[in-house]
Amino acid sequence: MPSPTALDLLWGTRERPRRGPKPSLTLERIVGEAIALADAEGLASLSMQRLAERLGCAKMALYRYLPGKAELTALMLDFGMGAAPTFEDAETIVAEDISMEPQWRRQLRDWTVAVYDGMRAHPWMQELVVGTRPLGPNEIGWFEAGLTPLADTGLAGAERLDAIALLSGHARALAQQAADGPGPESAMARQLAETLAARADRYPHTLAAFAEPGVRDNALHFGIDRILDGLAVLMAARAGD
Fold first, then answer.
1. Whole-model pTM?
2. Which of 2, 40, 82, 154 suits 103 as a labelling partner, its CA being 20 to 30 A distant?
3. Are residues 146 and 221 in the same domain?
4. 183-230 pLDDT tens trace
């Protein structure tokens, strides 16, 4: 029997053998240990040998469950993403500024923040979400959750896909910046204050922007709101047409 592909493993389309002794490992345990190793030491530290040592088995034993590292990382990404968030059913909710906010906006904001939180929890996923790859049920579930609020907005299918690409890209970019610790904007402001103290004539607008009092480390929500504002304008235009 040929080895299972990443898609076989992601979607469970290959029937597992029923005869013979009970396996000492499970695919779920293997992937869970791989995720724990990547969380602790980064994806570069992951190897089949290191994983076997964590599991207390021979390296060759892992190949009874999956063909190699490419299939392992595909499973890690889907398992690491977990189930997509679910949203409330109310037609409108009260936003933080006490104004009534359309349901689609709040749902997309919650979805984007969940993407950000997931990338912060598993920074190594940044390396796996680029390029063409096999998509598993959890990742497709995140697509579904992000597209659902846009279903009746009048946007075309490609526009809905581009909308969640913009939001997820924004979340991933900020999660990557924050990988070294909390407060990246505040830390940058302090560093720039020292660096530019004697160079204010060369960079007056940069210095002024960082020196101006206000809320720091709000780039995530600021960017989300600006993207949602743009989508609202487009939706209004579609409704007018």
1. 0.84
2. 82
3. yes
4. 555 666 677 777 777 777 787 887 777 777 665 668 999 999 999 999
